[in-house]
Amino acid sequence: MLFFHGKQIFSAIFDMDGTLFDTERLRFRTLKQASLEIFGKALSEQTLIGSLGLSAKKAEALAKAHNGEDFPYAQIRQRADELELEYVRNHGVPIKAGLLEVLERLRKSGLTMAVATSSRRAIAEEYLINANVLKYFDITVCGDEVGQGKPHPEIFLKAARALNCEPGQCFMVEDSENGMLSAMRAEGQAILIEDIKPPAPEIKAGALKAYRSMHEFLADLSECVPDLGMPALSEPFPASMNQFSVGIHGFGAIGGGYLTQVFSHWDGYTRPREIIAATRSRMLRESVSAFGRYSVRYGATSFDQTIDNVRMIDMDDDDAVISMYTTAEIIGLSLPEQAIRSQARVIAQGLLQRFERRGRELTLLIVLNKVGGAAFVRRHVQAELSLLCPPAISEQVLQKTHFAETVVSRIVSKLGNDALVRQLRIKSQMFQNSLEDEPASTRKSSTPLPEYERLIGHFRPFAQPSSAMSQLHLVLFNSEADMPLYAERGSDLLERLRQVKTVPDIAQIQIIKNRLWNGPHAIVAWYASLLGHAWVGQGMGDARVSELAERLIRQEVAPALVAEYPQMAEVVSRFAEAFLERCKTSFKDPCARVGRDPLRKLQRNERILSSIDLARKHGIATPALAFGAGLAIHHALNCSNSKDLESQAIRQVYLDNQESVEAVLTHANKPFPGLCPVKDAELIAAIREGFRQLPQPAPRHAVAVGS
């Protein structure tokens, strides 16, 4: 039961064609085609629109009134049924957008539900089963089961009686004028969802509420159902799927190990039918595609969460990425800055194609761990749009795109390739063993099989391998358990996502999180690696590393943030404690991954140096942070990964300037601005002193960046 605009509602009765399904337009096409085939002339729009919501008998009378008594309506209707069924069997029933979310909310609010349709039962059941919505309805009343069709109230009254509900306590959801008259005459709570032909104003006025779309009804209904709150980590994803596709541009640690969970929980009632994930990693693409799903491991709680309905695409396949931007309802963009620069053109192409083909808004969740990340992405996309279309069109495209800045409160790591190959080797052997253990069916019989056995036989060859696969799951990510994703307000869609917390000003949370986590996290990883530890969690077992982490957070970064944002003291404390606790248990977090991109972390207004500036502003000494900046340079000089261009850049500047730490810190290497030799002389000296406390880096030759 729910209270809706002052009414107590116990049941909901839905019309089918035009209300549940977008079949009225399909019906128009098939009736026109059938009429043309049989009668030599297509039915007119006037006849078709006039027949909306009518019973078969009344629709036939109308058609004959317009086309003569010899008009073969029954034959045309039968042929139209055949054409319509052929389309539905090949393409599926076109479900009204927002329907599944509405049905889930009504069902979980305890309402009983029925379908009251003018269609014959054979047609109605096939459509309801095809669309996988029959499960929502307790009963169905069809046009061939009542004496009088709409606009007579019989069909709604019969459905209400079958549900043991008074008509006045039933939603009666309709799209047509005749349907509305039927619901109103039954004295139900008429809900109008407009379709092809809006009812006359006086009939529309008789509705309890009238909406232009199912989504409008959904938004109103959502105000009347309980807020499900933040999901628990182990809470199952919704079983029912909606019609949305969502995208992840960058299937890395956050994209694959976090955003997929956010999208899978969705609003708690349904989840997207498909997650499209773009990555350059062929191994990841083929692994996920082969298994059909993958898992994220939460080691601290010994929980593996399975993510399914993921379709992998190649990030270098421009057509596939553009298609994702055209079709997805929301896209999580989780790429580093350099990758965003290189992908900006294909993003712009996708947004432009979306605007031209659909004209629909798109929410882009920007996961960049950078203050101003949304503006950064928007700026680069806008620059590419200016090369693709006139300024007026570019502005319209940008207006249709919500660039939502986010803060991720979770540490996630992706399995390395070697670990993934080892896992695949083990899973492959397990799968082969399970197939060998299952004896093949050799039954042969000359006796005709019952129909059910013949039908089941179509599926039997695939059942055993499918069963064997269901026992396997591929772990691709290790993650901490924090659930909320913070996002800036501005997108209605984000307000519906259960795992998203929208805030009016994301910048403060971004600054607090970045300075408490990203800079210190890298410093801890650099120091742990220097001391011979491969994982952050292992490093925290070393007193030298844990003491550095405590000093960084409790004596320098957190006090500076509280001094700057006193109203956010509780948030600072929560993030600080969570960070230290996670570092202690991050046994799947490789120091090499956490410590990558040292040049980015040393830029003037981010991560480490900005924390030093803030602390000094409030008179707080920063020896641990200065030591950490020295660790960044030391890490880069000792890095042997030829693909780490930032470490190569640091090493080249260092060697080209007689092994000068000052040269590295002041080097104007765009897009990462360095320190000022004059204004920052004291800070440079402190970092240089921290660097001198470290073992001398192994001598290396300079390597040209990009070689």
How would you portray this structure in words?
By secondary structure, the protein is of the alpha/beta class. It has four domains: 2-20 and 94-223, Rossmann fold (3-Layer(aba) Sandwich); 23-91; 241-414 and 485-492, Rossmann fold (3-Layer(aba) Sandwich), CATH 3.40.50.720; 505-693, N-(1-d-carboxylethyl)-l-norvaline Dehydrogenase, domain 2 (Orthogonal Bundle), CATH 1.10.1040. Helices cover 51% and strands 13% of the residues. It has 31 helices and 20 strands. The protein has an eight-stranded mixed beta sheet with strand order 13-10-9-14-15-16-19-20, with helices on both faces. Strands 5-4-3-6-7-8 form a six-stranded parallel beta sheet, sandwiched between helices. It has a four-stranded mixed beta sheet with strand order 12-11-18-17. Helix 21 (506-530) packs across helix 27 and helix 23 (543-564) packs across helix 27. The longest helix is centred in the C-terminal third of the chain and has 25 residues, at 506-530. It is elongated and about 100 Å long. The relative contact order is 0.06.
Structure characteristics:
disordered C terminus, Rossmann fold, alpha/beta, 4 domains, 6-stranded parallel β-sheet, single chain, 707 residues, elongated, 31 helices
Write the layout of secondary structure elements.
Layout: E1 2-4, E2 7-9, E3 11-14, H1 24-39, H2 45-50, H3 56-67, H4 73-91, H5 99-108, E4 112-116, H6 121-130, E5 139-141, H7 154-162, E6 170-174, H8 177-185, E7 189-193, H9 201-204, E8 209-211, H10 214-222, E9 245-249, H11 253-265, E10 274-279, H12 282-291, E11 293-298, E12 303-308, E13 310-314, H13 318-327, E14 330-333, H14 337-357, E15 362-366, H15 373-388, H16 391-399, E16 401-408, E17 412-414, H17 417-437, H18 451-457, H19 460-470, E18 475-479, E19 485-488, H20 492-496, E20 500-503, H21 506-530, H22 536-540, H23 543-564, H24 569-585, H25 591-594, H26 598-601, H27 607-617, H28 623-638, H29 645-656, H30 661-666, H31 681-692
Parallel strand pairs: 3-4, 3-6, 4-5, 6-7, 7-8, 9-10, 9-14, 10-13, 11-18, 14-15, 15-16, 19-20
Antiparallel strand pairs: 1-2, 11-12, 16-19, 17-18
Helix pairs in contact: 1-4, 5-10, 13-14, 14-15, 15-16, 21-23, 21-24, 21-27, 21-28, 23-24, 23-27, 27-28, 28-29, 28-31
